[in-house]
Input
Amino acid sequence: MDYSSAIFILLGLLFIKHWYIDFVDQTQEEVDNKGQYGRWLGIKHSLKHGIGTLLMLATADVVLWFSITAGIIDFILHYHIDWAKMNWGNRDITTPAFWNHLGLDQMAHYFTYLFIVWMLT
Output
């Protein structure tokens, strides 16, 4: 497989992981706790992201030490991005501001994955 195809597949795996954990697997209790710093259920949500990133990179045959490091980076950044959104973002889904903040939150997460793949390359 050529280099650009490998990067494309890795980003695809990370995006699928993100969608699954954020939109399919996330519980209402996790959502309710993400805005309170240090609460276990908010940490648990981000920990699932870190572990998922580690597994996606390991699946793509990335060396273990980098997979672990990337998982830790994703965990830390995901936690703080979500915390910021819950504390400064609009929570009323009927407003344009909510969708603006949700889009900004998702873009920040995807920039995390771009950063991880950039570090790898």
